[in-house]
Amino acid sequence: MDLQSLLEKSSRDHSHLCPRQILGVRMGLCGIKALGVSANQGSKRLLVITETDGCFADGLTAATDCSVGHRTLRVEDYGKAAATFVDTQTGLAIRVAPTLDVRERAYQYAPNEPRHYFAQMQAYQVMPDDVMFTVCEVYLATSIAEIVSRPGVRINCDSCGEEIMNEREIHTNGQVLCRACASRAYYQLPVSMPVFEKAGA
Question: How far are the Cα atoms of 1, 71, 174 from residue 9, in angstroms, in the given order?
Answer without folding.
Answer: 10, 20, 49
